[in-house]
Design brief:
With 145 residues, the protein is of the alpha+beta class. The chain contains five helices and three strands, in the order H-H-H-H-E-E-H-E. Strands 1-2-3 form a three-stranded mixed β-sheet, covered by helices on one side. Helix 2 packs across helix 3 and helix 4 crosses helix 5. The longest helix has 35 residues. The mean pLDDT is 87.
């Protein structure tokens, strides 16, 4: 999908104003058509459409996605070791739980951007890791009987 969008943008840069206007009119037409589909789809069908990897970005483009940004982000990281702390305009703040792999931050950022392309920044903090007290590391011997 991203490759197609990139190609369209490149072609539009080379096209004249009439072609750019045509694309705008087509987007408006498709947006109105999608709005009608979503209006009659019902909650269950809308959720299935929103989960489709091709339809979901189109719904986002036309501001028709049934889930808000926070819900999409929470769904995207549901099976991870992160919690959503905040969703503010173009920012998402996450906290990786204790014991989470620090190398998973890139995957977290990508998951957020895939689910919510309107998010420009993802800040990730790490939960305090519980330290093992030094005393518990000493070997204790059972008293001699």
């Amino acid at each position: 999908m991203n490759e197609r969008i990139d190609r369209i943008e490149a072609l539009l840069e080379q096209a004249g104003p009439a072609a750019t206007e045509l694309v705008g009119e087509l987007l408006d037409l498709y947006g109105e058509g999608l709005a009608r589909v979503m209006a009659v789809a019902g909650e269950e069908a809308a959720a299935r459409l929103a989960a489709d990897e091709l339809v979901s970005p189109l719904l986002l483009l036309h501001d028709l996605h049934p889930l808000d940004t926070r819900a999409r982000v929470e769904t995207a990281i549901a099976d991870s070791s992160a919690d959503v702390l905040a969703v503010e305009e173009d920012l998402v703040r996450l906290r990786l739980r204790a014991g989470a792999c620090r190398s998973s931050t890139a995957a977290m950022r990508q998951a957020v951007h895939d689910a919510a392309p309107e998010i420009e920044r993802v800040e990730i903090e790490f939960a305090d890791t519980a330290l093992i007290p030094v005393e518990s590391l000493a070997v204790r011997r059972a008293p001699a009987t």
